[in-house]
Design goal:
Right-handed parallel beta-helix repeat-containing protein; alpha/beta; 23-stranded parallel beta sheet
Length: 930
């Protein structure tokens, strides 16, 4: 048999041998047939279900009398050059419900294009105009490819992708839609390449739900709202615990994993289902609000993008959103370039944040920000501002060009910086006001102050260079502690200024060419300075004002124009192994000053005084040593290195108060004996140190083993206070932490989190409750082991500055110590907290009652004892916590009992006090309540 070839069909009303309607030609065509349609207007609706090609010759308008102009259910139908018109702008002009239809160079007007079910269409060179609600809608599991699409004049959204639909959009123009330009919702995905979205009424691109998107070489501009808005859980990957939505591959390039296509036939033109929201080589500008907004629990990557001239923030990350910025330029915005708030997390690398109307970076809430190789400059406000409990880690960054502060850390925020430069700052290069900071190998400049520290934390500057042309190089505020390691300070009127009652440790470094005094110490300041060089000061190298103190060891004071050291009235200072040269006078002191010198070297000084001074006393009963806290024996007699009697009496009173508070604790007799013994041992350590003797080997770190509610936190607080009173801790405060505070969520997150918590505890006690949770049993890849290793190193680096106490169930604590040899070697003493007995629990409730002005009827105490005797003591039993809960329940039941008496408010006001305060056995709660 001969093969039957498909015959081309013609549609031309009024012509001989041609179909009068397109529908008739379609019905008569065989699969694979070609239909040519002559110019004209055809009022009909096409339904296509087979492979067929329709070609418009001239201008062909297909006007639907009702419903869609074209509906495709199956097959590979193709339309070329048609104008498809819908009579209802809010309905579909083209409905593609199945098959793999193709529309080329078609104009759809007065209605939308809708792709549903599992259709996989291709639209090339088409336009959609004058639709209402939305111009293109993709739903179901459809996979659509749009090439050179134009959307314009629409009163709603441009392109909407919903459900699990996928879109590949290339070389498109979405222009002047009243709603959002591109909307991705639910589990949809879109890949946009070389697209232009201009003049949208709201966001140019909205990614919502758990949708994903990849934009490459796109331009989004003149939106009334955001340029890109990512919300919900969009961009989040359901990957392994602790992983980001993207993983760094070997090449460091595209790190978003790509899943395989579900349809091999459609793979050539369908979008890859990228898990994430990624913009690469995109430009976002002239937006009415933020350029990029990531909120809720979404995730986004900006790679080589340019965000500029935005009315709101260039990039805003909030909620629980995660953002990564690589080689991004966020510039010329009316507001801040990068804002991270709530619990948002932003990582920026090789990016620029500049020319802003507010800050360069603003981080607040519990935000976490990491900057590497970034530039933050030319800002109207502070370049980098941290507030709330935000935490910023900056490496190799350039910050400055601001009329305010280079970096400002406030409230409880933390700044960690390494190899950063802060320059061209009109006020202070680094200002820490209430927060904390640790800077290493940084260069900091400020026209007023280089660095200013006013905080209850203890900031660290290590291997930094600080320059100021104004008042001070480094200014440590009142009641502020700080640590300076190998810091070089140049310029400024005063190189290093220590205000009232500050406590600073200086190791190495130099203060050079100050226009006033090199180091200035105010009243009550207690610096310990070792190995500092002060060179070419226009006034004194070291100026200790009235009431100032301090130890200065192995320091070099050279070429000062005024006396190298000045000691004001009532000042008390110790100079050990210091060198003075190149000045007329080595020491000028007030007659009420106390200055001690030991092994000091003076050269090229006209009239040296230091060699004639007595050395600091080191024996019991001798003259007080300045700058050293008194060590007090149990009998109250002074040990070596005591201060004046008034200070010693204050310390003794503080010790007595703390020991009395310890004694008042219910039960815990063994623990209380151990704590008293430890404090006596620590006291002897202090005495030997002040006498110049080597301290005995003794670890201050402790293990508290016991069940919940046995007073471990309270004892830890008292232990810190006792060591502070003895002068072995500078503050003695308690910082509580658990696994969530120390262990991060992804690679590289844990060590900085652990370090930040540890730094807050410097000078006091770090108390880690349920510490065994750092090493979950049977989990070898958990980040908790990294937290343990970080703790071990920090404990070694700061062995004399902090006490670490780990607490938890006795059996579990053994497993923790066995997990790391370094950890076990630092925790050699365990204090066991026994469960409370029934009489002890009764005493706790009685103490609670007394504190809240309640009393017990005589029979209530016996009933309460029996209650605790019968109370089950399983895993839910909370010891002291359970006792406090019992008291709370008793007060609630007492209030209910009194209320049920039916007394009026007037009667209650005049009622007998016994009625209002006496707890009866009936007020005890049922045992099952606890």
């Amino acid at each position: 048999m001969r093969e039957v070839k498909s015959v081309a069909q013609r549609v031309a009303p009024g012509s001989w041998g041609a179909h009068r309607s397109i529908g008739a030609a379609v019905r008569g065509a065989k699969p694979g047939g070609v239909i040519t349609v002559q110019a004209g207007t055809y009022t009909e609706s096409l339904v296509l279900e087979k492979d067929i090609v329709l070609v418009a010759k001239g201008t062909v308008r297909l006007v639907a009398p009702r419903g869609p102009a074209v509906t495709v259910h199956a097959g590979r139908a193709e339309l070329r050059g048609f104008t498809l018109v819908s009579p209802a702008p809010r309905d579909a002009a083209v409905l593609l419900r199945g098959g793999e239809p193709v529309l080329r160079d078609c104009e759809i007007t007065g209605g939308r294009v809708e792709v549903a079910a599992a259709a996989a269409p291709l639209l090339s060179g088409c336009s959609v105009r004058q639709a209402e609600g939305m111009a293109v809608r993709l739903t179901g599991t459809s996979r659509t490819t749009l090439e050179a699409l134009t959307v314009g004049g629409c009163s709603g959204d441009g392109v909407v992708v919903e459900d699990e639909a996928a879109l590949e959009l290339t070389d498109a123009l979405v222009d002047g839609v009243a709603g959002r330009g591109i909307v991705l919702a639910a589990g949809a995905h879109a890949a946009l390449t070389r697209c232009e979205i201009r003049g949208s009424g709201a966001a140019a691109v909205l990614v919502d739900g758990h949708a994903s998107a990849a934009l490459r070489e796109c331009r989004l501009y003149e939106a009334s709202g955001q340029g890109v808005w990512v919300r919900g859980t969009a961009g989040r990957s359901p990957g392994p615990q602790g992983r980001r939505p993207w993983d760094v591959g070997p090449s460091g390039e595209d790190r978003i994993p790509v899943a395989a296509s579900s349809s091999a036939d459609a793979a050539g033109r369908s979008a890859d289902r990228t898990q994430g929201v990624r913009l690469r080589d995109c430009e976002i500008f002239r937006t009415g609000r933020s350029g990029v907004l990531a909120e809720d629990a979404s995730a986004i990557v900006l790679d080589r993008c340019h965000v500029h001239h935005t009315t709101g923030a260039a990039v805003l990350v909030t909620g629980e959103a995660v953002a990564e910025l690589v080689s991004v330029r966020a510039v010329d915005c009316v507001d801040t370039a990068l804002v991270v708030s709530a619990t948002g997390n932003a990582t920026a690398r090789d990016s620029t944040f500049a020319r802003t109307g507010a800050n360069g970076l603003y981080a607040t809430g519990e935000a976490e920000v990491s900057l590497t190789g970034c530039t933050v400059r030319e800002t109207a406000y502070t370049a980098v501002h941290l507030g709330g409990s935000a935490r910023v880690n900056a490496r190799d960054c350039a910050i400055g060009g601001t009329p305010e502060y280079g970096a400002r850390v406030t409230e409880r925020a933390e700044l960690l910086a390494e190899r950063c430069e802060v320059t061209d700052v009109e006020l202070t290069g680094l200002c820490v006001e209430g927060g904390d900071a640790a800077l290493r190998d940084c260069r900091i400049e400020g026209e007023r102050d280089g660095v200013r520290l006013i905080t209850t934390h203890r900031p660290l500057l290590a291997d930094c260079v600080v320059t100021s042309i104004g008042e001070t190089g480094v200014r440590v505020g009142r009641d502020t502690g700080a640590r300076l390691e190998n810091v070089t300070i140049t310029g400024a009127t005063t190189g290093l200024l220590l205000e009232e009652d500050s406590a600073v440790l200086v190791e190495g470094g130099a203060v050079r060419e100050s226009r006033g005094s090199g180091v200035v110490v105010y009243a009550g300041a207690r610096p310990t300075v070792h190995g500092l060089t002060v060179e070419s000061a226009a006034k004194n190298a070291l100026y200790v004002g009235d009431g100032g103190e301090g130890r200065y060891e192995e320091c070099h004071f050279t070429k000062s124009r005024f006396p190298a050291v000045y000691a004001g009235a009532r000042s008390r200072i110790v100079l050990r192994r210091c060198a003075v040269d190149g000045t007329e006078t080595d020491l000028l002191r007030d007659e009420e000053a106390e200055v001690y010198a030991q092994d000091c070297h003076v050269e090229d000084v006209a009239d040296p005084v230091l060699p004639t001074l007595p050395p600091p006393p080191a024996k019991q009963g001798s003259t007080p040593v300045p700058g050293v806290r008194r060590a007090v024996g149990t009998s109250g007699t002074a040990g070596a290195g005591e201060q004046d009697p008034e200070a010693g009496e204050a310390v003794a009173a503080k010790l007595d108060d703390l020991r009395a508070e310890l004694d008042r604790l219910v039960g815990l007799e063994g623990v209380k004996r151990d704590v008293v013994t430890l404090t006596k041992l620590m006291q002897m350590v202090k005495v030997r140190q002040d006498a110049g003797l080597a301290p005995p080997p003794l670890s201050r770190h402790l293990v508290f083993a016991g069940n919940p509610g046995t007073g471990k936190t309270t004892v830890a607080r008292l232990y810190g206070g006792l060591l502070a009173a003895l002068g072995l801790l500078s503050r003695g405060h308690l910082v509580e932490a658990d696994r969530g505070d120390l262990v991060g969520e992804y690679v590289g997150h844990t060590a900085p989190k652990t370090t930040a918590v540890f730094r807050r505890a410097l000078g006091g006690v770090l108390f880690i409750d349920e510490a065994y949770s750092l090493v979950p049993q049977g989990q070898f890849t958990d980040f908790g082991s990294e937290a343990v290793s970080t703790l071990v190193k920090l404990m070694e680096d700061h062995r004399d500055e902090v006490v670490v106490i780990v607490a938890g169930y006795p059996n579990e604590m053994n497993r923790l110590l066995e997990s790391n040899a370094g950890l076990a070697s630092r925790f050699t003493r365990t204090l066991y907290f026994d469960d409370y007995s029934s009489p002890e629990l009764v005493r706790i409730v009685e103490h609670q009652a007394k504190s809240h002005q309640y009393t017990f009827a005589p029979q209530t105490t016996a009933a309460l004892h029996d209650y605790f005797e019968n109370l089950p003591r399983g895993e839910q039993f909370g010891n002291g916590r359970s006792a406090r809960q019992v008291f709370q329940r008793m007060t609630e039941r007492h209030a209910q009992r009194v209320a049920e008496l039916g007394l009026s408010a007037v009667d209650l006001a005049s009622a007998d006090e016994e009625l209002l305060t006496t707890l009866l056995p009936a007020d005890l709660p049922p045992e099952e309540v606890l």
